[in-house]
């Protein structure tokens, strides 16, 4: 493949056109000046005149691989421009029904055009990049299970509308055994209008999103495969910037910046502060996080809009050379349904010689659901514990070195007891591809993880935390932090009652920490960069001392609320016992 370098093409103007514009459009110029000073998206590196000509699409750099589209025509209607849409009154019931069926307000989505416009949130620079004219053709793969009609098809329409046709090999829809009426023959009929560009294949049983994507990858015919969730809207000129790094190096996987689409109003908005760049990292319990680009990475960049390396990604939206994906084994087929596959692929790519780049000039909107409307089906019954933790364990058992595995088990003590099945093929692949250690990955790629989440001291106690007087257990009741902690009947199943105390006094539940003031005891976000805490357990007196306050964890005898009180070793309301809840 030919080598090329990225280059900001600061427009080659044809003189005669410039003259015409300058003389003929004084009013436009004034209007533009107004817009220019209002807009905060204008980047100072780009000469104003270039910006002006660009947005008016007067000068079109053709043949140079800029791929910048002509401006979309202005459209008026519900949700146009990515504006929030309020449902017509009288449809509240429909909306409520849709929310519980899909985790998103389909009644609202149904009122918005499948071809709606969205705001162009890219950095101004992005309009001036030039890309090779012979970028690889792409199969856009969308897997779906019981998704809403209009949000699924808006994904398809946005790809058709905003992708240079010569780069789009196909859109491949892979149905993961949906049972909704309209996703049957009605969908087959509908896609006929795309004259073969959109292809549909179906699973014969529920496979989950991970295996369904693998199936899509095998069936796809494009040189590059690009995955999207089934409720996305792609942005202006989104594809070429994702393909260019792959063209340069086929072991690069690329990820767009993901904007948010509100699941209730369908408002399209960025979730990132302007001018700030984030990359994907993780906590030791394998919780996915995003963190601002570390200074060392910032220094490597010349342009704000340039792609940058990231340790991992959210999972849903990315592009990769198809053959490379298959060479590194695709997704581990032992991962079930949902979760952890983003880490598996990321660790594998990095440790086995590839890289991941996030691409600021490519933006894609994604509907974040209110809640997950589907269950994990029959496959999940095979698994003893929570399916997602099971997947994580499979991933870390293959890719982590022993030292790092301990960090995971410290955060997820029950995971030690889960059976992840046979991983010998994954280990053999790791050997065959001569992949590097996790330590290497941490030192060279994901070093910012250490800054936020230092190496974890081991747990000294974990399990349910029972109060002796009340005979009840610490319980989050499934509420997300920040939330007050209460006492529930001890059930011995871990989950909301699984707490842990580490050697440095941090008391926590999953990725969260227990903190207390005089009035209440709460589950909160742990203080970043710390792994210690204010708790001291005395196994003899069974007291839990909070060293910040010099007081003991107590159940108030009357209100039964948790609080801190002066320590009193014979008070059973202050006595606590940890009991490991090992699954049978
Ligand atoms: O059994 C299933 N079969 C499927 O085909 C379950 C789901 N699916 C489909 C589903 O219809 C959808 O198109 O798989 C896709 C993803 O499922 P979602 O949208 O219900 O999940 P999500 O958006 O919460 O999922 C995020 O994490 C997943 C972990 O396995 C995947 O990696 C998703 O792709 C990922 N989504 C994103 O990264 C989008 C960006 C937002 C974030 C974070
Ligand atoms: Mn999704």
Main attributes?
584 residues, alpha+beta, 9-stranded antiparallel β-sheet, 5-stranded mixed β-sheet, 22% strand, globular, binds ligand LR7, binds manganese (II) ion
What is the tally of helical segments?
Answer: 17
Q: What is the strand content?
A: 15-25%
* Spans of at least 5 consecutive residues with low confidence: 1-21, 35-63
Mean pLDDT: 88
**Largest beta sheet, briefly?**
9 strands, antiparallel
**Total number of β-strand segments?**
27
Tell me the Rg in angstroms: 27 Å
Q: Overall 3D geometry? A: globular
DSSP helix fraction: 25-40%
What structural class do helix, strand and pairing data support?
alpha+beta
How far is the N terminus from the C terminus? 56 Å
Ligands and ions found: ligand LR7, manganese (II) ion
Domain Ricin B lectin: 462-579
GO cellular component, one term: Golgi membrane
Cofactor: Mn(2+)
Membrane topology: Single-pass type II membrane protein
SSE map:
Blueprint: E1 7-8, H1 15-24, H2 26-38, H3 48-55, H4 92-102, H5 106-110, E2 129-130, E3 138-144, H6 149-162, E4 168-175, H7 185-191, E5 198-202, H8 208-219, E6 224-228, E7 232-234, H9 239-248, E8 252-261, E9 268-269, E10 278-282, E11 288-292, H10 295-299, E12 308-309, E13 318-321, H11 322-327, H12 341-351, E14 355-367, H13 387-399, H14 402-411, H15 424-432, H16 438-444, H17 447-452, E15 459-467, E16 472-475, E17 483-484, E18 486-489, E19 499-502, E20 507-509, E21 512-516, E22 521-525, E23 535-538, E24 543-546, E25 551-555, E26 562-565, E27 576-579
Parallel strand pairs: 3-4, 3-6, 4-5, 8-14
Antiparallel strand pairs: 1-2, 6-13, 7-14, 8-9, 10-11, 12-14, 15-16, 15-19, 15-27, 16-18, 17-22, 19-20, 20-21, 21-22, 23-24, 24-25, 25-26
Helix pairs in contact: 12-13
